[in-house]
Every structure is written in C-alpha cells, then in structure tokens.
Amino acid sequence: MKQPITYELLHICKQTGARRGIIHTPHGDIDTPVFMPVGTQATVKSMTPEELKEEVEAKIILANTYHLYLRPGEKIIKEAGGLHKFMNWDRAILTDSGGFQVFSLGPLRKITEEGVEFKSHLDGSKHFLSPEKVMEIENDLGPDIMMAFDECVEYPSTYEYTKQSMERTTRWAKRCKEAHKRPEEQGLFGIVQGGMYKDLREQSAKDLVELDFPGYAVGGLSVGEPKELMCELLEFTTQFLPKDKPRYLMGVGTPDYLIEAAIRGIDMCDCVLPTRIARNGTAMTWNGKVVVRNAVYERDFTTLDAECDCYTCKNYTKAYIHHLIKTKEILGVRLLSIHNLRFLTKLMERVRIEIENDNLLNFRNEFYNKYGY
Amino acid sequence: MKQPITYELLHICKQTGARRGIIHTPHGDIDTPVFMPVGTQATVKSMTPEELKEEVEAKIILANTYHLYLRPGEKIIKEAGGLHKFMNWDRAILTDSGGFQVFSLGPLRKITEEGVEFKSHLDGSKHFLSPEKVMEIENDLGPDIMMAFDECVEYPSTYEYTKQSMERTTRWAKRCKEAHKRPEEQGLFGIVQGGMYKDLREQSAKDLVELDFPGYAVGGLSVGEPKELMCELLEFTTQFLPKDKPRYLMGVGTPDYLIEAAIRGIDMCDCVLPTRIARNGTAMTWNGKVVVRNAVYERDFTTLDAECDCYTCKNYTKAYIHHLIKTKEILGVRLLSIHNLRFLTKLMERVRIEIENDNLLNFRNEFYNKYGY
Predict the structure, then answer these.
(1) How far apart, in whole angstroms, are the C-alpha atoms of residue A18 and residue A220?
(2) Segment A305-324 mean pLDDT
(3) Do A86 and B320 lie within an 8 Å CB cutoff?
(4) H or E element that contains B195
(5) Model confidence pLDDT, tens digit, residues A105-161
(6) What residues in chain B have per-residue pLDDT under 50?
(7) Taking CB atoms and an 8 Å cutoff, what residues of chain B touch A67?
(8) ipTM of the predicted structure?
C-alpha cells in the first residue's frame, strides 16, 4: 500500500540525539523538528493563509475535529471539497481526534467502551463520538494527517484508572485503523498514553507500534506535571517508537518545551500559545517575554524584537502595538500573532541548524540564559 | 503662503454637475469623488496599511481627534513623529475635530462660548475642548487635512437653537484659523452647519467662505433626516461653496448616498459603515446587501460577489465566511472589511468614469435597479 505520510531522517545530533528530518505529505514536505500553528476552527486565529506562508513560513497547520464537527459540521466541509479547499490552505493539515476536547468537558461527558457521550459546550445538545465516528469525520475533513481517537487522562490520575484508560485507547486505536477509509490519502497516527507511569507508557507504545501506524504522537504530557517529569517521561517514551516514523508531542508550544522536545527526539509540536498570548498583548522575543500591554511600553518607540525580521518588527513600534491592544483593535492581535508565530518558526529553524551542527545542547543553554529560563 | 491642500477640477458631468477632480496633499494626490475609510483609533479596523493600499487602493483615510486625544494622547503620537509614522501610513490623513463625538455624548457635555466640557466615555474623567485646544491636538497629530471644531446639532433642532449654534460654530472656525500653527503643512477645513434650515445653511456657508479655508465640509446632514431632505439641503448648500476648493460631506457611506453626494458636487465622503457591517457579517455587493451571517449561506460555495476581484472574492466562499462569522473568528471580519472597502473604492472609481463620460445620472438609475434601491 502507498503510504501518504513518510519520514526521512537526515541527521541525528551527536550532542543530544535530536532528529533532523523531513516529513513527506500529499501537500508538501515539512522540515523537522517543526512547530505547527493551530487553526482550531479552520482558521489560524486572525491570520490569512498567505500570511502563514509568507510571514510565518508554516508548512503544516492543525485543525480541531471536535470544533469542526460541531461547526460548521464535517459534511459541509466535505461538500466544500475538504478542509484544504474550505479554508484555502494548500499545504499540509493535521487534525486532532477531538479526544482531548471531549475529555476536557468533564461532567458533560460519559465514557464507555463504545465511545463517549457528551454535551456540546455551545448549546448543550447531546452527541456521541466513537472511534468509527471520528474516522468518518476525519475522512470527511480530509487532512493529510489524522489522529486516532484517544483518552487523555487528567493529571494526576490513579495507576488503576490510567491503565484502564490506556488499554481502551489502544483498543480504540485498533478500531480507528479498521474504520479508516482513505489510508492511501491520509496518514493515521496512533497516540501513546499511560499518564505519568513508565510501565504504562512502555506498554502503550509497544502495543501501538505493533499496529503499525505511519506516525506516533505522545499524548497526555504537558498537562500540569512538572517540567522535569515531562522531560523524563518523554525521553523514556520515545525510545520505544520506531526511528523511521514521525513523532509528535501534542500541545507543546513554549520555547523551552519545544527545545526540550527536540532534544528527546520529537519531530512535531503544536500549541495555541502564540496566538492566545497575542490576544492578551504578549510577545515572545529573543530576549524573553514582552507584555506589550503594560503601561511601560506606552512611549516605547522601538520594535518588539531587535533580532526579528517579521512584518510587525519591520514596521511597528511597541508604543503603537500597546495602543492597539489597549483599545482592543484587531490589528494589535494580528501584529502580535504574526510576530509570535514567526518567532517560533525561526526558533525551530535555528533548532534544525543546531542539530545539523551537533550543537543543540550548547544552543539550549545559551538560549535559556538569554531568554531568561 | 504655500497651500498644503489644493484642488484641481478636471471635468464637470454635463448630466449632473458632478465634479471630477484631484486633491493635492503633502502625502499624495487623491482622485475625486473619493470615499475615505475611517481609522478611528489610528487603525482602519482589522486592516493593515498594505491591505488599504493594495486591496482597497485607499489614497486617504480618516482618524478621530476625540479618540486619539483620550488614547493614546496626542503627545505620544507627536513624540512618535506624528500620526503617519505612528500608524505606518504614508498616504494622506484627515482628522475630524472631535466635535461630533463630543456632542454625541449628550448629558456628559456642557457647551459654552469658550468650548465644551465633557466626561470621557472611557473613565468619566473631565476634559475641556476649545477651538484652540483642538488645533493644538490636530497640529500634534499632524494630518494633511484637519477639521475645525464645530457643533453638529441633533435632528430635529429648533430654528432658534440651530441659529445660535451655527453662529458659534462660525466664531469657533475663526478662532481655529487663528490658532492653527502649521498652515503651510496642514490644510484646515471649515464646516458648514445650519441644520435643516436653508437660510442658516446659506449664512454659514457664506461666513465660512469669507474666512477663506482651503476646503469646506458640509456637516450636520445624514443625521436622521429623510434622504430627500438631505439631498435638497446638500444641493442648496454646495452652490455657495467655491468651485476651486474641495468639498467634503461628513459621515456618508451607503452606496446610494455616495452617488447622490457626487451628483450634488461633493468630492469627499467618509463613513464607518463598510467596516462596521463587516463585523456584523454583512457584505455590500453589486447585487445588493448580502447578510452572509444568515443560515441560508451555510452551504453556499460561491463567492460574495461575482463581479468583484478583491482578495476575499478571489479566494473564499460564502460558506467559509459564514462559518468564520458564526464562530466569531477575526478572519471573517477581515475578509468582509476588505471586500466592503474595495466595493466602495470600485464604486467611486466607476462614479469618476461616469462623470468623465457625462453619464452619472444614467449610471445612478441602473445601479439603483441592480442594487435594489
């Protein structure tokens, strides 16, 4: 069978073991490690596709199955010709499975072996998602990479519950694989769970690898546990994943976590952070966070980041962006979103270079000193 | 004295008397009649300057003195090097005087011969604006065209009050002229008032023309009176204005009013309408209004306007824009703002051609049939 998603390993950093590679997709190649901007509702908040291509140089973006299932509904997107056409994005797309969102609903959802019953956060209407239903939705949406339906347990969770849940997630992954109708066009990734328990992580990884997916995600990390524990579990987990398949750490987007993930052999990360903090008036820069909403920037006629060459930093002062954020003007959110996404793109570009130079550990230390971690 | 703002008359439409001309400003030439997008808080809502130039082809935009005086404060904009530099816009800018906003505050303001005391709509703090203070603010902001401080009376108002107010506005216009510190760089326009009373309009126009401003606005129209009355008063008023100076009808932005204004010899109009209705999910098109927020467009995979060549119409369907508006995504507002502003630019381009062809009346009738007026 033709595989829509393949991974090409180019180099392993001698200092860290980090992987420099390329993911081949039906909508273009992706240099890895890569940060993927999130477009929850079929739009990366405030951005056009052209800005994502030209300013951010994004090669792949995410969209959320749960949100698109509720609005506008996957059938409308299918009628539109799929997500790429619907949102006018001709590069790669990855959709999550909705698992994380559904389980975040807390008392609004009920889990059984069959699937999850939940009430919409929008109107309280009842819905049921099963592995089969999620595959149908993701097949309709038509992303390049689709995630299996999993359960992401809370932190902390008991060993007993985490084990039960992880084993169910594996059974669901198998059902997903069987229900997936377009395996030659869309790559289905399995998601390793197992909470904070190493033996469960190992079992989850091995069982999923047995199912032979074209890629693997590590889920259920960065959910509130200390950074050291996250790093330890990530390092422990990736050793069980195949070297010739891409590895995706879900929901990670702070600069330090991105670097730590790369060091532990991760190829892909995503997070809403850069666009979310943009809406709150915060920029990530090569000299640390700049809360441009703060009054201290009212008369600051310098740019956000002297080392940045993005549209925002080429054209606008902190004083102007401060004014836009204070007056709730959309352009303020736009300018900060462009900058923050560009910053992460440039950070990952740098990470890739440092891997090629076998120098990622040195870079991490320098970066932490400078960025203030 | 060198005049920063001059008007060149190119042609008068034989069918209507409409004027085709050019306004020369320190920041470029403006083909007239022109529609000016409004950037109340030093940003045309949701748009970058590049989009205004490339997509909308705007040659001049407005900003609001009242809003900028309150936030960020005109001194900060002066320190930034003026409004053009602050907001990264190198074409022409016109600022209103804040009069309209202050008088709209109703019980929050008190008018005397000296000026107006008012409470900020933001925090209730007390402020005082006089003609001299407004000139100081507009000199600090540094637009190409600045408006004199006037009072715009409500509709309806008594003859007695309107007369008093109009005469005060004329006295204020004189004080503005005397207080204006940069007459070689910024053109100060007088504003004709006089409510719905022809003799007061005539007196106002004649008294202001006596003061010899480089341009004149007609204020206090389109404030709730019937369209026929607006047209009648406008036609009556413009006859008293000099032929060699630009004429600006304040606050008008519906397609039919723009055409009627041109027919009555108006060169410039402005309105928040195109960006405001964008935020409510409405598009102006060559076939009338399209309320794309309505459910009927959920599955409409055609573009907003088959006759439009804007970025939005080249790339997106009504179904996608509908989805973005329903989910309150910023991109939806952006796409509709681009389209609506472009539509008005193209409408005025067409109006200029029809003036040159002595055909504006025929065009108006065709347009009304098609647009549904």
Answers:
(1) 21
(2) 97
(3) yes
(4) none
(5) 888 899 999 999 999 999 999 999 999 999 999 999 999 999 999 999 999 999 999
(6) none
(7) 327
(8) 0.97
- pLDDT at res. B373: 66
Find, in chain A, the residue whose alpha carbon is nearest to that of B317.
A86
Q: What is the DSSP letter of B93?
A: E
In this predicted structure, what is the pLDDT of residue B1? 82
Contact B321, B303 (CB under 8 A): no
Long-range interactions of B21-28: CB distance < 8 A, separation 24+: B21/B246, B21/B267, B23/B60, B23/B215, B23/B246, B23/B267, B23/B268, B25/B60, B25/B92, B25/B144, B25/B145, B25/B187, B26/B92, B26/B144, B26/B185, B27/B84, B27/B90, B27/B91, B27/B92, B27/B93, B27/B144, B28/B59, B28/B91, B28/B92
Whether this model's pTM surpasses 0.90: yes
What average pLDDT does the structure give for chain A? 97
For residue B150, give how far its alpha carbon lies from the nearest alpha carbon of chain A (Å): 26
Whether A319 and B72 lie within 8 Å, measured CB to CB: yes
Distance in angstroms (rounded) separating the CA atoms of residues A116 and A110:
6
pLDDT digits (tens, 9 = 90+) for B167-207: 999 999 999 999 999 999 999 999 999 999 999 999 999 99
The confidence score (pLDDT) of residue A373 equals 66
User: Quick check: B149 and B130 in contact, CB under 8 A?
Assistant: yes
| Sheet containing B116-119: order of strands | B109-111, B116-119, B126-129
Hey, is B285 helix, strand or coil? strand
Cβ distance A137 to A63 under 8 Å?
Answer: no
Q: Please, where are the H alpha helices in B183-254? A: 198-211, 227-238
A334 touches B: beta carbon within 8 Å: yes
Question: What's the length of chain B?
Answer: 373
pLDDT at residue A243 greater than cutoff 70: yes
Render the burial of B349-359: b for 16+ CB within 10 Å, e for the rest.
Answer: eebbebbeeeb
How is residue B72 annotated by DSSP? Answer: T
Output the pLDDT for position B170. 98
Q: pLDDT value at position A372?
A: 74
Find the residue in B nearest to A313 (Cα).
Answer: B88
Eight-state DSSP code of residue A309:
-
Residue B204 and residue B166 in contact, taking contact as beta carbons nearer than 8 Å = yes
In what side-by-side order are the strands of the sheet with A6-12?
A6-12, A19-25, A28-32
Those residues whose C-beta lies under 8 Å from the C-beta of residue B79, and which sit 6 or more positions away, are: A299, A301
CB B193 within 8 A of CB B10: no
Residue A1: pLDDT band (50, 70, 90) is confident
Q: Are A304 and A339 in contact (CB under 8 A)?
A: yes
Residue from the list A41, A298, A333 with its beta carbon closest to the beta carbon of B327:
A41
Burial of A155 (0-12, 13-18, 19+ CB in 10 A): middle
Chain B contact for A323 (CB, 8 A cutoff): yes
Q: Which residues pair with B22 in a beta bridge?
A: B8, B31
